[in-house]
Structure formats: C-alpha cells, structure tokens
Amino acid sequence: MGHGMWASCFLVIALAILNIGAVAIDQTQQTERISGSAGDVLEDDPIGRLKVFVYELPSKYNKKILQKDSRCLTHMFAAEIFMHRFLLSSPVRTLNPEEADWFYTPVYSTCDLTPNGLPLPFKSPRMIRSAIQLISSRWPYWNRTEGADHFFVVPHDFAACFHYQEEKAIERGILPLLQRATLVQTFGQRNHVCLKEGSIIIPPYAPPQKMQAHLIPPDTPRSIFVYFRGLFYDVGNDPEGGYYARGARASVWENFKDNPLFDISTEHPTTYYEDMQRAVFCLCPLGWAPWSPRLVEGVVFGCIPVIIADDIVLPFADAIPWDEIGVFVAEEDVPRLDTILTSIPQEVVLRKQRLLANPSMKQAMLFPQPGQPGDAFHQILNGLARKLPHDSSTYLRPGERVLDWNAGPVGDLKPW
Ligand SMILES: *[C@@H]1O[C@H](CO)[C@@H](O)[C@H](O)[C@H]1NC(C)=O
Questions:
Q1: 143 touches ligand 1 (CB under 6 Å)
Q2: How many angstroms does the Cα of residue 106 sit away from the middle of ligand 1?
Q3: Which protein family is named in the record (predicted)?
C-alpha cells in the first residue's frame, strides 16, 4: 500500500473519530453506574463501619518535615499528608484506642526532596522504624499484633521497598517491620515483591482545584485521537535505553511520532489539561514505576486511559471495573497501538466515555480538601472496612514475636 493510500485511510479514521466526539456531545448528561467486583461499592459510606486511632507522634515525623519543603503538598506523593489531615477530622477517628479497628501512624516518608523536588526515600526506613519503636514502647497495641491492625500510607514509587530504581527496590524488599501491616500505596503490580497481599492501591495525588480550574465545556468535541505528553527516553538515568519504561515509551515514539492520529510529544504545554479534554484516548504508559498521575487526569478529563504497563494493579480495583473503563495494551503490543485503538467499536468507546462521565468515578480518584463523600479518602476507608473483622491470625499470643527487628540492610538499623 502506497503512502497516499495510508494518508486517505487516516483521514477516514480521523473523520470517524470526530464523529465519535460529536456523538459524545449528546451523551454528556448520560452516565453509567459503576459496579466493581464487590458490587456498587464506589458509593459505599465507610462512616460507622470502622474506627481509626491516629497515633500522636512528635512533629519531626510529619509537620516539621513539611515545614522544610512545602512542595510535598503538591507533588504526586502528597496523599500521605492529606490522608493524615483527613483522618484527624474524620468521623471514623476515635480518641479511644481500645475501641479502634485500625491504627494509623502519620509518618511523611516521601517529603525529603532533592533540589528538583523528587523525593529521596533513603531515610524513610529509618524514620518508619523509629516511629514504630516509639508507638510500640508507648502504647500496647503494636505488640499485640506486630502491626497487623495498623496501616501505613507509603506512596513512594515502589512503596515500602523505598527505592526509585526497580532493581534496588526488589533487592531491598518491603521494610521488614511492615510485613504484617496493611500498606496503602500507589505502587501496584501483580507478583512483585513490593506489593504484598492485602495492600490498598490508591491513585497518586493530582491537585483537584488546579484541574477544576482548567475544565472546558463538556460538549467540546474530542478531535484528538491519541494524546500523550511526557518522556520517551530518560537519557540521564538510562543512557543505553530499554530500561526506562521497559522500552515501551521509546516504542510509542519510534512507531507513532509521524502518525497523524497520535498527538505525542515531550513538550508539556500550558493547555495540557484542556488537551486531555479534547482527546479520545490518553496514553498511560509505565515510566520508572508502572503508575502515573495520567490515570487520574484521564479519568477526571474523560479521556479513556490506555494503560501500557503489564501486570499493573490499578487503584481500588475491587470497586472500579478498570477493564470496562480503560484500554489495556500489552507492552509488547505497542507497535500495533494504532490498529488496536482504531479497531475498538464506536459503541465500546461511547460506553467507556459514559462510565468515565460518572461523577463517582472522578471523585474516587481525588483527594479534595476538605474531603467529600466518595472521594479517594473514603475509598481507602472502604478498603479498610472491607477487611473487618480482623481474623484470628491478627492477634499474637501473649509473648509471641514474629518480626525480626534486626532484619534488612544494616544502614536501615541506624537510629533516625
Ligand atoms: C513491646 O515489646 C518490646 C519488645 O519486643 C518491649 O521492649 C516493649 O516494652 C513492649 N511495649 C509495651 C508497651 O509493653
């Protein structure tokens, strides 16, 4: 087939896409109920279903760290700070630890930033160890379960493995003292040492007000077929190539940089949020870690997320039927991305758009201040409530010890 024929082919497809956008105009008021594997659980109300005790820690574990660098309030790891604030004034909070179902230890483990604003996780293990030492000596509740009724928010790239390079993260594994605790984390990938059974996967933090400020009229046609802004290569950290994003982003660029259906670039325009609202599909490829804020942005802006991250576990997957909302493309299939996306039937695209238009879907991805019913805070609480009552293995026999306080790299054992 000659080049001209391809070009006319694209034109036909592009027109078809504009048509999808046009049809979508009539559908904006129409949304669809979202039923996850646990039923219509996005609308569940956790209030009254669990009680959480918030340990009071010296401010050096949380507020003081934030005072040093307020950028922690806006980066994609900020959920740990907002979850703390949310719980302090939440009706699920109890001041009586004797009646608590869950114990929460507010440690801001991702707020030690480089000059560029990227979190350095190297002190986090010592900080968390130190906090656990403190709560286990001042209160009797840690020793009773060695953390099995405690949860920790660990929003770092590879969560409680506390390293941003996957190889190193795997080598470290989950911090030994957290082995019995429930981890609330952004990192999700099946069969990975940094994701243990029973963890609650959350969306990364994306600023709700900022996104709100960039909303355009919902009837704006979606005239962009595929949209992506971000790195394709990370030459600084991966000079040879192939390690960053396991080569998937490089493959997107190499295969589709000249394809008129693909609006992709490394330039981050000021109209980024608006552009997502004009796109049908938004690529969410893995980077160093499998997750990224693009998923949240896609949902909020009604752009169907195209997830390219093999074995990813998405946020609140027991409540949200991601298969029906997004499109999953295997990393090795990236070269066929154009065919895969253009062959999705129009009615399937429309259904995904209707599911994305459901306000409860958007709400579940956001950490607004103050919290609102159905938001990500409430979904976390729902996840914790669904784990109740604790089973008998939660509580240790008097004197029984499972955790090894001396396990892990020696550097982590130094006091903090
Ligand atoms: C918890 O156990 C540790 C030893 O494992 C002990 O040092 C500590 O005093 C205990 N905490 C309480 C509150 O009894």
A1: yes
A2: 20
A3: Belongs to the glycosyltransferase 47 family.
Determine the atom of ligand 1 nearest the C-alpha atom of 140: 13
Residue 7 lies in a domain: no
CA angle 386, 188, 134 (to 5 degrees): 70
Strand blocks (E) in 13-146: 52-54, 102-104
Report pLDDT for 39: 58
Residue 136 CA to ligand 1 center (angstroms) comes to 6
Residue 313 has a pLDDT of 97
| CA 181 to centroid of ligand 1, rounded, Å | 17
In this prediction, residue 43 carries a pLDDT of 75
**Alpha helix ranges (H) inside 214-358:** 248-256, 272-277, 294-300, 322-325, 337-342, 346-357
Which residues are within 8 A (CB) of 270 and not within 5 positions of it... i.e. 6 or more apart?
none
Domain tally, the chain: 2
Pick the atom of ligand 1 nearest to 143's CA.
1
* Residues found in the chain: 416
Q: Whose CA is nearest to atom 7 of ligand 1?
A: 137
Q: 91 with 130, same domain?
A: yes
Expressed as residue numbers, the domain containing 81 is 44-205+370-413
- Enter the pTM of the model: 0.90
CA–centroid distance, 236 to ligand 1, in Å, is 46
- Helical axes 346-357 vs 3-27, angle rounded to 10°: 40
Same domain, 177 and 252: no
Q: What is the structure's pLDDT at 375?
A: 96
Q: What is the CA(137)–ligand 1 centre distance, in A? A: 5
Q: Are 241 and 296 in contact (CB under 8 A)?
A: no
81 within domain boundaries: yes
Q: Would the CB of 405 count as within 6 Å of ligand 1?
A: no
Average pLDDT over residues 272-300: 96
Binding site membership of 269 for ligand 1 (Cβ less than 6 Å): no
| Residue in 380, 350, 383 with CA at minimum distance from that of residue 366 | 380
Tens of pLDDT, residue by residue over 291-310, are 999 999 999 999 999 999 99
Which protein residue's CA is at the shortest distance from atom 9 of ligand 1? 137
